[in-house]
Amino acid sequence: MEFIEEFNQMEEGQNSTEKAFKGQVQSVRRLKNITFCLLANGLEVFQVVVGNKNLNEALKIGMTIQGKGEVRSAELENIWLTKKNEEIAAREITVLSRPFEEPIIDWSKKELNVSGEVFWNYRALSLRHEKEKSIFYIQNTIVETFRSSLKSFGFVEMRTPKLCAQGAEGGANVFSLPYFGKTAYLAQSPQFYKEFGTGVFQKVFEVGPVFRSEKHNSSRHLNEYTSLDLEFGPLNSFEEIMRLEVSLMKSIIERVNQVHQRELEILEAPKLPIMEKVPRMTFREVKKVLAEKLGIQNAEEDLNPEEEKAIGRYVLEKWASEFLFVTHYLKSARPFYTMPANEEETYSFDLLFRGQEITTGGQRIHQYEDVINSIKESGLNLEELSFFTEAHKAGLPPHGGLGLGLERFTAGLLGISSVKYCVLYPRDTKRLTP
């Protein structure tokens, strides 16, 4: 009978100074009699030193090797290393795989220094660079902390359909595709299903892809991105949603700061923000400040990128905050399901971070009659939305929630110039591969 033992990446050898190792060669530095190489094995990057007489063949970037050796103390300075106080002096090495040819991208250098087309066309290779990997190690922690924090508050994780009969937001920015004689649409948002979830579990969240058919080709737009969504009830006030987001953001930032000093240093990221009391202004107050104090006149019923950046600078100077809640957006600028505060305004908000909107949220209409009236006033097809209104007919708690754009938040947090660098394989108006 055979037994499967506990999985272990780094097995101990016969004594405490010997260690078995395995990993992919990230860089190679050859001297006359000795070779230094950095091996990557999951989150670990460590140095292996081997005498050239012990090598059956020259080590090359991209090889995967395993071996055994003596662990010894060292004082190493390479910023990529996760272990700077020790190295492994190899006494035997076995090559497990070899590159067929020299990679077109050399990820052993401090900077990639390749053209944009090479960078994106060979994305599976550019991602091997430590700077690129560092973004996604941090992003993984953002998602992990979002998920674990909400679960500790009693939230249940959902997985909602991405093939839908219509978009949750309405409008023309949806992708359509044939679906067994019908037309289906890729989900713009899990909004409808989140609301249903409040009638089932009361507190729900999802981490998943959303799709927007927007012809923007900018540093802040993607046609497929990851949304961190939550919805909960019963609510007494839409301010509860903002308080929850402050708590979530604080936990995320603290966790990133706790476990990713190496990655933050590699990325030369700006100092992480302090998330305490977040200032808030109504939409109309923001427009007034923009017009009267900053000289920016704009009649649009939303904030454009220039306005977001300007009000972000104003808030940083006035309140020393890199965050701002903008509340009470106009009914004409919000979806039909948004709870009205009065004849013109809604119980809705955006969270701006370093001059860019990263979250949209608010309270939803929960009474059946009010939902019906709002759909009619919006000029939408009541019959097509009957599946949505049925849940309200059976009763939903007063509820609300938000959606956080993962890539925008990552880019803002790490000082990265474009959201495209914060998704493994970006999809925009020009790119469908790799």
Describe this protein's structure.
With 434 residues, the chain is of the alpha+beta class. The protein has 2 domains: 18-97, OB fold (Dihydrolipoamide Acetyltransferase, E2P); 130-422, Bira Bifunctional Protein, Domain 2 (BirA Bifunctional Protein, domain 2, 2-Layer Sandwich). Helix content is 28%, strand content 25%. The strands form 3 sheets. It has an 8-stranded mixed β-sheet with strand order 6-10-11-16-15-14-13-12, sandwiched between helices. A 5-stranded mixed barrel has the order 1-2-3-5-4. A 3-stranded antiparallel β-sheet has the order 7-9-8, with no helix packed on it. Helix 3 crosses helix 5 and helix 3 (130-152) crosses helix 11. The longest helix is centred in the first third of the chain and has 23 residues, at 130-152. The protein is elongated, with a radius of gyration of 26 Å. Mean pLDDT is 91; it is low at 10-14.
Brief summary:
This protein is of the alpha+beta class. 28% of the residues lie in helices and 25% in strands. It contains 11 helices and 16 strands.
Describe how the helices and strands are arranged.
Elements: E1 18-30, E2 34-41, E3 44-51, E4 64-73, E5 86-97, H1 116-121, H2 123-126, H3 130-152, E6 156-157, E7 163-164, E8 176-179, E9 182-186, H4 191-200, E10 203-211, E11 224-232, H5 239-259, H6 261-267, E12 280-282, H7 283-292, H8 305-319, E13 323-327, E14 348-353, E15 357-363, H9 368-377, H10 386-393, E16 400-405, H11 406-414
Parallel strand pairs: 3-5, 6-10, 12-13
Antiparallel strand pairs: 1-2, 1-4, 2-3, 4-5, 7-9, 8-9, 10-11, 11-16, 13-14, 14-15, 15-16
Helix pairs in contact: 3-5, 3-6, 3-11, 9-10
